[in-house]
Amino acid sequence: MNMALFILLGVAVMALDTSGFTNTYVDRVIDLTGRYSHSINTITVLNHASSSVSKYYYAISKDNYEKLAHIRAYFKDEPHNLFKIDHVPEESTSQYELLKITIPRGIASKAETDLIVEEILAQKLEPYPSKIGIFDPQLLWFEDNIHLLSPYKTKSSRTRVSFPTQNIESYTQPEDMLYDLKGKELTYGQYSDLPAFANLPLQLHFENSNPLPYFTRVERQIEVSHWGNIAISEFYNIINRGAELKGEFSRVDLSHRYKSAAQNALESLQAILPKTSWGLSYRDELGNVSTSRARQHPSYVHLEVMPRFPMLGGWKSNWNIGYNLPMKYFVKNKGDQYMLNTTFGFPFKEIIAEELIVKVILPEGATDIDVALPFEIDHKHFETLHSYLDTTGRPVLVLTKKNAVDYHRKPFQVIYKFSSVQMMREPLMISGIVLCAMLLLIFYYRFDLALDKTLKKLKTE
Amino acid sequence: MESNFKGFIERWAPVLRIVMLVMICLIAVLIRVFSVIRFESIIHEFDPWFNYRTTRYLAEKGVYEFWNWFDSNSWFPLGRVIGGTLYPGIMMTAGALHQWANLLTFPIDIRNVCVFLAPIFSALTALACYLLTKEVTGKTEPSLFSALFISIVPSYISRSVAGSYDYEGVAIFALLFTFYLWIKAANTGSLIWSGMASLSFFYMAASWGGYAFIVNIIPIFAIVLILIGRFNTNTYIGYCSFHILGTLLAMQIPFIGFQAVTASEHLPSHTVFIFINVYYFCEWIKEKVGETRFNTLKKVVLGVSATAIVLVALFLTLTGRMKWTGRSLSLLDPTYAKKFIPIVASVSEHQPTTWSSFFFDLHILVFLAPAGFYYCIMEHNNGKLFIALYGVLSVYFASVMVRLLLVLAPALCILAGIGLSETIHRFARHIIHFREWWDYYNTPEEIRGHKPKYGYPLELSIPILVILAISVIAYINHCVWVGAEAYSSPTIIMSHKGHDGEKIIVDDYREAYYWLRMNTKPDAKIMSWWDYGYQITGMGNRTVLVDNNTWNNTHIATVGMIFASDDDESARLLRKLDANYVLVLFGGLSYYSGDDINKFLWMIRIASGVFPHIKEDDFLNRGQYRVDGGATETMMKCLMYRLSYYRFGQVGGAYGKAPGYDVVRQTEIGLKDYELKNYREVYTTKHWIIRIFEILPEDNREVARSKTQYIKKSEDYLLQYNLTRSKTRPSK
To answer: Which positions, given as ranges, span the membrane (chain B) (predicted)?
Structure first.
């Protein structure tokens, strides 16, 4: 049985053509200073096959794959040209999942190229201990692999980890391997001649008192009115996944003069809105939240929102922000063909949204709706919304993306057809109704509807 | 020229009238939206939050679900049958408006419907008031005046600002409209008007407990008419058909049901109905049998019926079928509540009215109304007498309870409208006829004709008119000021000016309720004083033990007892009640005077009514209620004190005062350094106004010891053989 499995595994691995590439140098940087872990792997790839190869395989551990919020691959010298990444489930094993990076023009034979693969992992930073006192710093636990998990052989590699503070409780100190901790930076390596799937566990325990906020759900509604306005309202559900509070909450401690309390509490969030935005609102289910500040800068509007209460570890909240944009800067047209060009992602930085839903509400009568996105999304469908004075309803384009990060704050385009005659429909409808009402009134007053004229005569007398 | 002008006025009078009415309606709405402009579109105060919550439920789930709703979120563990314990009028109105707006392709948020319902209805009230005065006086001028008065009268504004989504908001409209239709019915003797009056009464009965006022005033009026000999067939038809239909319709409201027959509030109505019919029956017999024989008959019948009535009344009172509700009784006897039902007495709006609040809420109407009353009596017809009677009765009710100023306000508006318009009319005609008088005055005495009818000198007429104009302007100014400043605060949001003039918003209520909503388990049970029950269920969406629907005095007393008990005892009781959190209001840091420590004496009084071991004297030091060093030991040990002042002693005092200085009580608290044994502070708002504590689970060892028999047995065994146990054993 075991043998059979081995053979099968062997076959699976053998099925991959790993002979074509060698990683001549891997520079792995794991950034743990922020609210989530962000690793940038710079891989110098050498193709020693006789022809150009366009498929590069990339392995990722099971645990990381489950927590993978975002991954992107590109050549070092063209960071905007992203490569398509596909999951290859049939090649995956119980330890790792295999991804296939497709490089359209391929890597030429005998050529060396710098390929960068960036990974953002959600919930990889785990508070440990999971409950802390109000004055305690927050300690996080991080587990990964020191080496880059690669199906190819690696000539030499180095791994660097950066921490937010110098306070590091413990870190993996492998025997007969090189490592060096200097201040906030930990370096492993340089290692040479690693086999394929070289595995060396990395365990780090360090102080990071940042709040760990996650949007569990974000819904953005972009409502286009051809009377000149785009109304945007965004609904956020947020949770702070930092260490929970052990013991009592106290305002006395929170306002302590010398000690900083509840350091991992989320006090406020910053958003950058387009400079033409106006009519900002910050509300929740109970109405306006009075703790917000907005400032107009020459090139943007800076919005600072504070939740109703300081969000300690484990606490949840929700709110929505709304603002308006003038249509003329965001919608262009050529005859009846319109194009809306606006941002896909939400304006809060450095927070992972586990689910992002973008609803584009187009005016009633818009047809032939199409969308152009700079990246892939999970789901796209249409809905109908009945809003003010609608008869047939407004078409709503619903775009769903799991795990949205800063990268997804990119412009996208919605193209649709809309005839300007449609705009007059609602005013005409209202005028028509008023006209009918007036006519009815006129008829009512001018016509004598009484059956018994004598009674009326009696009454007037 | 003059006739031209007069003709012009006459031709345009209907248009002017409509324009003026429209403007009055606009004013009525606009003066009530200051709160939305100053703050936001939000539901105010306490009771409206319940109404809002139920309306949302109605809008989401439909009428039948609403009707059969058993609310498990309040009165834990008893729950509350919503459909049978509320007046559904306001919810149905808002729900219907919401649905119609949706049908007409206006998907308005239900919250906005609720917020703006009262202002819209106040415009309708102005119209109803116009119609009623018009029906009563037959003139337009007093009607317009009274419509203007009622659209801005502060007493009514206080109950109907945008966001004040309460019964009174629609009920005052229903009250006036019912009166109008009923007067119309009584004047014309028309069944259609009577039927419409009954329908309007049905709406009133569905909206507010104050419908009892209509039930009583109309029979009293009928009796008055009989006494002064103005009762006629028209009034008979109006009264009888209204009584039968109205009672039947009121019985359709589950909350009223058979109370419409059995409750004492309805008794006058039934009695008068029977009396009138007997009276007319007698008249008819008299007509048939002749005077002398009728007199003998009368003696017999009167004797028999008097005994019967006495017997029936005795029977009903003795068997307890005839009951007066506490609130009604406190209307008849103002000292009743104070003596017997502290829960009614503890509410500030149930206090007797002071003269200053009369003037503040009614202003110039207080002076104009007597003039109107005079004119109503002097040039009376049925309608005017009704208004006069309404005025007299409501003055009495308003003096007993502050909240009933609201019932007085429409009466005074109508009376003041009549008074003002009549006075102006009387003085203005002297100015119009001034020339006649001038001619008469200037002709030599010998050739003078007889003295003209209207002839006061101008220097008397004009100043009086000017004074009237100034007082009405003063009234309008006062009302606008009241609408903008006094009655526009939502009370759940407070704002004041900071040192640099910046508006500082104190939003602690919503902060705490939102925290509850987001960060407690959905089935968490929260104990607080009943004042905050509706808000916690409405804003926090969590279960409460008691709320503002104070139907179960024992349950409220239990909560009062828990607050008055010490740490261990209260925790024991709370665990029995399955409560998870305790919420207290504390204003000692931020000048919020309506906090729980100040209400605490009422809690003790209510608790001691049911649980005699709670004694008010234990909390008073020689009759004084103190929280400083002079507080009694019971006071310092009780849960309310412990929770309110928990760790407050560590807060630096304001303006150079010692730490733990309570700014509301103006004193330094007596007990500063203590720990809570069974409670854990889980949240306190920014200005400390709301503090939330979690009840800790019971200690494991304690449970094992008290609940299992064999451990107790082994304890006895150990004691018997003089065996010692570890020190951790609790001392009894």
So the answer is: 12-34, 78-98, 110-132, 144-161, 167-183, 212-229, 236-261, 267-285, 297-318, 358-377, 389-418, 460-484
